[in-house]
Every structure is written in structure tokens, then in C-alpha cells.
Request: fold
Amino acid sequence: MAEEKLSAAQRSKIRRLSAPKELSPDEEGGELNIVPFLDIVTNVLMFVLATVSVTFTATIDTSPPKLGGGAGARAPTAPTLGLTITLVPGGFSIKARGGNVAPGCKDTGPGLAIPKVVGISGGEDYDYASLTSCVKHLKNVSPDFKDETQVTVSANPDISYQAIVSTLDAIRKDETTGDALFPDVNFGVAR
Reply:
């Protein structure tokens, strides 16, 4: 049998089909580059760790106000103080079981129980020391109030957050003696 000679077109086709195929860039068989993915995961992890540490250091323990008495609610057997402190632009308005607390915190009557005082900077500031002594006085008015720990705090919308936090600090504990005053704070809505 005689050997058949291939034409130029046939030889070209054989060369083309037997040559290794060159892959396109999206079909490359190299390693997967996961460095950008790891960068994103590391950044998210650092953000979560930083956020969690701040969350635990900036909390104030309070209880939400209770809505309605429910069917099982009973009237308390002992009288309660029912202390409510409202921050207003002019000072502290305090209400107790007997009604509004009068200026000076000694009796009941109209007006602000503790008005603002001239502060160190020359402007008016809330008198937190007088607030502490006032709630301490109200707690000691009757032996029935000695064990009471709940207070409701509300504020007008234009009151600063720092003023509210300082008020909570002033009514929770007497810093001079270390005695707990009203550690269980409920937030109310100013009306």
C-alpha cells in the first residue's frame, strides 16, 4: 500500500487539534485567591469585637414601665411612696404619694421641688446634690418607705441625655454614705 500524502490543509487541522488548548482567563486552573475574602472577614470580626466591648460598658439597668394591672393585680397592703421625678427645663418636679413635693422638699404644694442653680460656669445647672438629699428625706419620712426601691423618671423632650444619666446616678445611691436609695428605675413618659 502506498502511503498517502496529506494536504497542507489536513496537516494544519491535525496540528491545530493536537496542540494544547489555551484557557481563557476565567477558565484558568490556578489557585483560588482568598486574600480579599480574608481581609473582609478580619475587618468584620474586628468591628464585632469592638462593638461588643462598648455595648457591655455603656449600659444602664432599668425596667420598662408596667402597663395595666392585669387581672391578678392587688392593691399593696403597705402604703408606698410612688416616687416620680420629672426633669423639666427649670429643674426637678417631684411627685410622691401625697401629691407634688413643694420647693425645699419639706411639704406638698405647687412648684418645682428643686429648681436649677447657678453652676460653676455661671450658667444654670441641675442641683443633683439637693435631689439626692430630697429623695433620701422622702424615703425616711415613714418607716413604710424604707424598703422601697422603685422610682419613675421622666423628662421633657428637650432635656439632654447627660442630665438624665446624672439624675439616675443621684437617685440610685447616696455617694456620701454609700446607702442605696432607689436602684430600680422605671422610665415614664412626661405629660
Residues 84-187 form one domain. Helices lie at 8-18, 35-57, 128-139, 161-172. The chain is about 30% helix and 15% strand.
